[in-house]
Design a protein that fits this description.
A hairpin with a 2-residue loop joins strand 11 and strand 12. The C terminus is likely disordered. Helix 1 packs across helix 2. It is globular, with a radius of gyration of 20 Å. By secondary structure, the protein is of the alpha+beta class. Strands 10-11-12-9-13-14-15 form a seven-stranded antiparallel beta sheet, covered by helices on one side. The protein starts with a strand and ends with a strand. It has a domain of 75 residues: Roll (Structural Genomics Hypothetical 15.5 Kd Protein In mrcA-pckA Intergenic Region, Chain A), CATH 3.10.290. The chain is built from seven helices and 15 strands.
Length: 301
């Protein structure tokens, strides 16, 4: 098990260590969180924190890599927002597969934007919040929100100018090797627009390959469409002729990392999202090893 590291936000400045744990892991019993602190499992710069230790925004704390902790952290209560990173101007949250980014047909009652807005209402926030990009309903991973119109506008501009690194993991048909670049026109707003997706093969076997995919443009269904046209559709992607696999009821596509230059702090920001258990189980069944860490993490230097 690997450890989890958090960089505390301005919102958490002045809170006690116990308060931070209760807010970040609402599914955990308070008695369990107190036990972690009493046993010295929660640390700052190598030193254990107590229940009453006051923390500051920007500090880094590390937490244990026990299976129970990871299960609690990875499974917030239904309808809750799983926050991966937050600052005064931006918010990165995890979107589970099956949940739409915006309200739409079949997703009127529950979608990621509504969940975030409800969270902000509970905080009595006075600004609007909006996602600056989207993930397909069947795709999991981090989604970036701007807090306020100015923040949303600046962050959206970074996406439009290809200043945000977007790294995905996809399982495709066929045993491949090496790396390459997919270049082809993709329908976008009634026109054909050029799209580019870089890929690197991470593992292959059992008639499949695990790819790391880097988006260099942001067209709708870009990855799914280009892989299918190349003869290697995503496993489980019925819309683009992807083959089904046992235990897989959605396209095998997960956004592993978002990285950008924070336009407000001026610092580089990278948010990593662990592979969800349903996809990790598929890899284990195929005898493939997931090559990255299995806990959520963000890095800001």
């Amino acid at each position: 098990m690997t450890t989890t590291q958090w960089c505390l936000t301005d919102k958490e400045n002045g809170l006690t260590a116990l308060d931070v744990l209760r807010e970040r892991i609402p599914a955990a019993p308070v008695s369990y969180l107190r036990q972690l602190l009493r046993r010295g499992k929660v640390r700052r710069e190598g030193l254990p924190l107590t229940e009453t230790t006051v923390v500051r925004g920007g500090e880094r704390i590390t937490l244990p890599g026990s299976r129970r902790f990871e299960e609690l952290f990875a499974n917030p209560p239904a309808g809750e927002v799983d926050i991966l990173f937050e600052s005064r101007e931006l918010l990165v949250v995890f979107k589970e597969a099956g949940l739409a980014t915006h309200r739409g047909k079949g997703h009127e009652e529950d979608n990621l934007l509504d969940r975030v807005q409800k969270m902000m209402e509970k905080r009595r926030a006075t600004f609007m919040v909006a996602p600056v990009h989207r993930l397909d309903a069947g795709t999991s991973g981090p989604v970036l929100f701007g807090k306020g119109r100015r923040a949303a506008g600046l962050l959206g501009k970074l996406f439009m100018e290809d200043q945000v690194e977007k790294i995905y993991l996809g399982l495709v048909a066929g045993e491949l090797s090496g790396a390459g670049l997919l270049c082809s026109p993709v329908p976008a707003k009634g026109k054909e627009k050029e799209a580019q997706t870089g890929f690197t093969v991470l593992a292959s076997g059992s008639g499949c390959s695990l790819l790391e995919l880097r988006l260099h443009s942001g067209r709708t269904h870009q990855i799914r469409r280009q892989l299918a046209e190349a003869g290697h559709p995503l496993a489980g992607d019925r819309r683009y002729r992807g083959s089904p696999l046992p235990g897989l009821d959605r396209p095998f596509l997960h956004c592993r990392r978002l990285a950008l230059q924070d336009p407000f702090s001026g610092q580089p920001l990278a948010v990593d999202s662990p592979l969800p258990e349903d996809l990790a189980a598929v890899l284990r069944t195929l005898g493939m090893e997931y090559p990255f860490g299995d806990t959520a993490e963000f890095i800001q230097t």
